[in-house]
Design a protein that fits this description.
Shape: globular
Number of domains: 1
Number of strands: 19
Strand order of the largest sheet: 6-5-14-15-16-13-17
Structural class: alpha/beta
CATH topology: FAD/NAD(P)-binding domain
CATH architecture: 3-Layer(bba) Sandwich
Strand content: 15-25%
Oligomer: single chain
CATH class: Alpha Beta
């Protein structure tokens, strides 16, 4: 017996969840508070676990066509000296797929293309989720007219609500009302995509200075994403973000000046980095499941934020399919889809330990990498990277990227269900 789910949030995790839930035979509506899906954002690297999740969702090949494999790159000092080398070919041999770089907008488009018209409802502000009925949830919105079919308040009853509403999730309080919420990581990031192609000698690179990092991701069309991370108090903003980036990083090694020169000033995005330092005691409550940054917002130091959200999406869909399969008959007195409660228990048990472990590792990577500012600590870090065997970087990536996605198949129909 199929069910009906409401996904709150139309980002990477929310769209992926909708694809997965539809893939197992459920109906789904995505409620996105933004009035227009404008495809803003910079770039993203997807590791093997993220690509395996996309393959399970049936969109892996579409993403690969829009992406560029990352075979070359590594870590350097501001002067250009090599600290560590990334062996993308070794990762591909070990995992069956390389890391790929893709504009976030292109990834969003690929995910939306896998959903039918009308599935994503924009301009839909979720005002309340009622979990008082243990078998159904009620989602209220202030407005919702993504397909031009009307506006005003509305309510939907669902077998499941998925909160994929980001690091500042308002629905998180339904799961953990006493949780302190996201904390500032101590770092702020400026980033942009170049307006034109740039000649690059590597697919991906990070440069570590004192309390600062500059990195780039090369795209298939020759353009590149760059990001500049700084230790900073929260809330600091610059009148001209590009000029400030040039002031801080313009003297670093090539191609950093060229990347900045190829960037339009108005294209620079600036965000403080927040994370969930305090782990959540559960990702679920009643018929509500937290997913992605709402559940485990992490620093970007391992490039695993989106990948973990994609893992969440596939794992949740697989749990729903498994718990709604043969033998999971629905009593006539219980409306809605069977097995949801068991599926949520399974989802929480599988996803919470792994995603929270990755979040801890990302935080530690930042502390030992970009966050270091004392000259002696920076010198010790750089020396350790230089003398480390070449396989250390590959093994570090494998530790988090080697994840096997469950297969997503619709639950088999059962007589009388």
């Amino acid at each position: 017996m199929s069910g009906y789910a409401v996904v709150v949030g139309g980002g990477i995790g929310g769209l992926a969840t909708a694809i997965g839930i539809r893939r197992i035979g459920w109906e789904v509506t995505v409620l996105e508070r933004a009035a227009v899906l404008d495809d803003m954002g910079a770039g993203i690297s997807l590791h093997a676990n993220g690509m395996r999740a996309l393959d399970a969702l049936g969109v892996g090949e579409a993403v690969r066509r829009a992406a560029r494999p990352q075979y070359t790159g590594g870590t350097r000092t501001p002067g250009g000296a090599r600290l560590a080398r990334m062996d993308g070919a070794a990762l591909e041999r070990a995992l069956g797929t390389p890391i790929v770089g893709i504009p976030r907008a292109a990834l969003h488009r690929a995910l939306r293309a896998a959903l039918p018209a009308g599935c994503v409802v924009t301009n839909a502000e979720v005002t309340a989720v009622d979990l008082s009925d243990p078998r159904r949830a009620r989602v209220s919105t202030a407005t919702g007219n993504g397909s031009g079919s009307g506006s005003g308040g509305s309510a939907r009853e669902a077998d499941l609500v998925v909160a994929a509403d980001g690091v500042r999730s308002r629905l998180r309080a339904l799961v953990a009302p006493d949780h302190p919420g996201p904390a500032y990581s101590g770092s702020t990031v400026l980033r942009a995509i170049t307006d034109r192609p740039v000649t690059l000698a590597s697919d991906f690179e990070l440069t570590w200075g004192r309390g600062a990092e500059f990195g780039h991701i090369a795209f298939a069309d020759g353009r590149a994403e760059w990001h500049a991370v700084l230790n900073s108090p929260p809330g600091v903003r610059f009148p001209d973000p590009l000029a400030e980036t040039r002031r801080r990083f313009g003297g670093w090694h090539a191609p950093i000046p060229a990347l900045l020169d190829a960037t339009r000033p108005g294209a620079v995005l600036h965000h403080d980095i927040h994370e969930l330092v305090t782990p959540l005691p559960s990702f679920v409550a009643g018929r509500l499941a937290l997913l992605g940054d709402a559940a485990h917002a992490m620093t970007p130091n391992l490039g695993q934020g989106a990948c973990q959200a994609l893992e969440d999406a596939v794992t949740l869909a697989a749990a729903l399919a498994a718990e709604s399969g043969p033998g999971r008959r629905r009593p006539a007195s219980q409306p809605g889809a069977p097995g949801v409660d068991a599926a949520l228990v399974r989802y929480d048990a599988e996803r919470r330990p792994r995603s929270q472990a990755v979040a801890r590792a990302a935080r530690q990577a930042g502390r030992m990498g970009q966050r270091l500012s004392h000259p002696l600590a920076v010198a010790l870090r750089d020396t350790a990277l230089r003398v480390a065997p070449s396989g250390v970087t590959v093994r570090a990536i494998l530790r988090h990227a080697d994840w096997t996605a469950p297969r997503l198949t619709p639950p088999a129909a059962t007589p009388g269900s």
